Amino acid sequence: MQVNRIWEFRGVNTYTSNYPRAMRLATRATWIRIGILGVALGVLIAYGWSKMIRMPLQSYGGPWLPLSPEEARLQTKLRQNVEVLAGKIGDRNLITFTQLEAAAQFIETALRQSGHKVNRQGFEVHQKVCCNLEAEIRGSARADEIVVIGAHYDSVLGCPGANDNATGVAALLYLAASFATNRPARTVRFVAFVNEEPPYFQTEHMGSRVYAKRCRSRRDNIVAMLSLETVGYYTDEPRSQQYPFPVGVFYPSRGNFVAFVGNTSSAKLVRECVSIFRRAVPFPSEGAALMSILPGIGWSDHWAFWQEGYSALMVTDTAPFRYKHYHTENDTPDKIAYDRMARVVGGLQSVVSGLANP
C-alpha cells in the first residue's frame, strides 16, 4: 500500500508499470501502418509508370543519320510551306482576317492539287465566317472507323506562327498528299482547324471544338485523333527541355525528341503510335498518357475531342517547354530544324498508315 501511495502521490496510477509495453505496441502499429502506406504508394507509382509513362520499344539514342533522298525532298517541301504560311502570309487570326483567309485558301489549294476534294465547314464568329477544311479518304473494309489527323492554321496575334503552327500544317499537307491515292481500311480525314489560339482556345468558337461536337452529333465513330502541334524545333543543348512538375523526373533533359502526348483515357493510342514511330525511323521519341489537369497536356486541338469522349493525342516538340520563341514575333521560318522535322514527318507517315490499316 505504501508503494501504491508513492505512485499516486506522483500522479501516476498503479497501471503505469504497463506503459512501456503499450508504447512498444503503439510504435509497432504505427510502423506497420507506415509500411502498408509505403507499399500502397509504391504499387500506385509502379501502376502509374506502367500505364502512363512506360512505352513500347526504346527511343532512338544513336547518332544523327543523313537524310535519304526522299527525306531531303520532304525537307524542301516542308520549308516551302512554312515559309508561305509564316513568311508570306504571316500573322493570321480573326483580327488579321485577310491573312487568315489567305492561309485557308492556300491550304485548300494545296489539298486540291494533291487530289483531294475539300469540304469547307464554315461557322460564324463575331460576324465573320471561319472555316475548318476537311479532306476525307473513305475507307474500304472498315469505313465506319475514322482516323482524324488535324492541325490548326491560325496564329496568335502578333506572331508569324512558324512553329506554332505552320509546321503542323506543313506536316498535315504532306501526309494528306502521300495518302491521296491510297484506299486504307479505315476512313482517314485530314482537317485544318481554325481558331485554336487565344482568345478562342478551349471555347465554343475553337474550330476543333465545333468540329468534334458535330462529329459526336452525327455519331461518327472516331477511333483515333492526332493533333500535329509545333513539330519543328529540336536541339541537343543540355538542359534545353523543361516540363511541368513532376513530369521531368521521367524524361530527358535535352529537347531533341518528338513527343506523343495524351490523357489517361488515350493511353492505348499513345503506346500504339509510339511503337509504330519507333519501328519506322531512327529519331528520339517519348510518349506520355497523363492526367489532363497537368499544364500543357491538353494545349491543342486534341483537347476538343476529349470533350466528346474520343481517343486523341498531340504530336509535338513540346512548344513552350522547349521553344523560347513560342507566341512571340520571333517565331519565324528560320528557327525551324527542317532536317529533323522531315524525319519526324516521315515517321508520322508510318503512324498514319498503321492506324488506317490496323
Give descriptors for this structure.
358 residues, alpha/beta, Aminopeptidase, 2 domains, 8-stranded mixed β-sheet, 8 strands, 41% helix, globular
What is the number of strand segments? 8
- Widest β-sheet, arrangement of strands: 1-2-4-3-5-8-6-7
Give the DSSP E fraction (strand runs of 2 or more residues): 15-25%
Q: Percent of residues in helical segments?
A: 40-55%
**Subunit organisation of the chains:** single chain
CATH architecture of the largest domain: 3-Layer(aba) Sandwich
CATH topology of the largest domain: Aminopeptidase
Parts with pLDDT < 50 across at least 5 consecutive residues: 1-12
Number of domains: 2
Short description:
By secondary structure, the chain is an alpha/beta fold. It has 2 domains: 54 residues; 294 residues, Aminopeptidase (3-Layer(aba) Sandwich), CATH 3.40.630.
